[in-house]
Task: inverse folding
């Protein structure tokens, strides 16, 4: 059985990069960039709601594909580079997750924590990474989106599971007990009948 912790889709990203290498435009751009200083990524102009929509829709589409074994919709939602992998290829790439029965449904309600804030790479792609904290396993993700028709569409994705936060105790702790469970008797006032008789006769 494949390890749940390994990053998936490294193969997918490489597969998508290969067609671009043969492009004359890409080759010409590469020659120009050799003489220029390498560009650094810049922060993406996207708000939190936009991030949530991109992350959740992408991972939920993957979850549904894994559960149904049908990767056509996931492929159709991707950028042209992503669509270079047919449904059968995607099914092969995600076979480990599918066979392990990994459930990503929790991303619909959990809040993602970003470890790489959304940034625009020098190639113009939107790049982000993070995790969904959950117990006992947390979902780690890395996503790459390409601009297509003024929309961000999945170009590459990597999903893995790792150990989550501290686990809940196996059973509820027993309630604290007092040092003595028996309450002391209240003090009593003893009355001598002879004393009462003398006091009443006076």
Result:
């Amino acid at each position: 059985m494949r390890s749940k912790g390994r990053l998936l889709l490294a193969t997918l990203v490489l597969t998508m990069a290969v067609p671009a290498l043969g492009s004359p435009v890409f080759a010409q751009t590469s020659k120009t960039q050799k003489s220029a200083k390498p560009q650094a990524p810049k922060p993406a102009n996207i708000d939190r709601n936009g991030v949530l929509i991109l992350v959740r829709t992408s991972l939920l589409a993957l979850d549904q594909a894994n559960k149904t074994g049908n990767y056509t919709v996931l492929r159709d939602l991707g950028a042209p580079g992503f669509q270079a992998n047919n449904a059968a290829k995607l099914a092969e790439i995600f076979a480990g997750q599918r066979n392990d029965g990994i459930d990503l449904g929790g991303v619909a309600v959990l809040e993602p924590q970003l470890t790489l804030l959304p940034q625009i790479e020098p190639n113009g792609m939107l790049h982000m990474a993070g995790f969904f904290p959950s117990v006992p396993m947390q979902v780690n993700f890395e996503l790459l989106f390409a601009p297509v028709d003024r929309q961000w569409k999945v170009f590459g994705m990597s999903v893995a599971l790792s150990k989550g936060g501290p686990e809940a105790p196996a059973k509820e702790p027993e309630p604290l007990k007092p040092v003595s469970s028996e309450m002391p008797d209240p003090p009593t006032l003893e009355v001598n009948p002879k004393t009462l008789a003398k006091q009443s006769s006076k």
Q: What stands out?
A: Residues 1-32, 166-170, 176-181 have pLDDT under 50 and may be disordered. The longest strand covers residues 151-163. The longest helix spans residues 48-68.
